[in-house]
Fold this protein.
Amino acid sequence: MDQIVAVVRGFDGALVLIPGPGSDFPEPAWGDAFFYYAPDGRLPRNVQPYATIITRNQPGDCASDLDAPNRWRVNIHVDRAAFLELTGEERRGLSRCRDYASTDRVMPHPVYGSLGWISVVNPAERTRNTVVRLLHDAHNAARARFERRREQEPPPERD
């Protein structure tokens, strides 16, 4: 997990948020990581992270068995073409049975796969390079969305 966090922190404009005790985030998020494109270093409003690392089961999301020792899952939002390439299925037509607890395998997110999220439990040798590439692509897509939103904002009023 630390290696992935370090890679993302190296991306231009990346904001890595890892909540802990005393933060404004609920305890179930403590120790997890949330990745944003935020060139000003401030948490963006009304924007979801482009990737996360989750370290424990969440309500309604226990298929990856993350409460077992030394287990965590990286989740990355990908475009339709990448999703199809990685999973062999359209994101809105997922029908294959999968073992979401298996490690070092790219697969649809067990809950948000239909929304274009993929996941890997404990990325290792087989998936490490793919995960880094997908994180880079997701970061660049978040940057492009940021730029489009900024271009659409009205200019500040002058006094």
Summary: The radius of gyration is 16 Å. The CA atoms of residues 89 and 96 lie 8 Å apart. Strands lie at 14-17, 33-37, 51-54, 73-77, 107-108, 117-121. The mean pLDDT is 94.
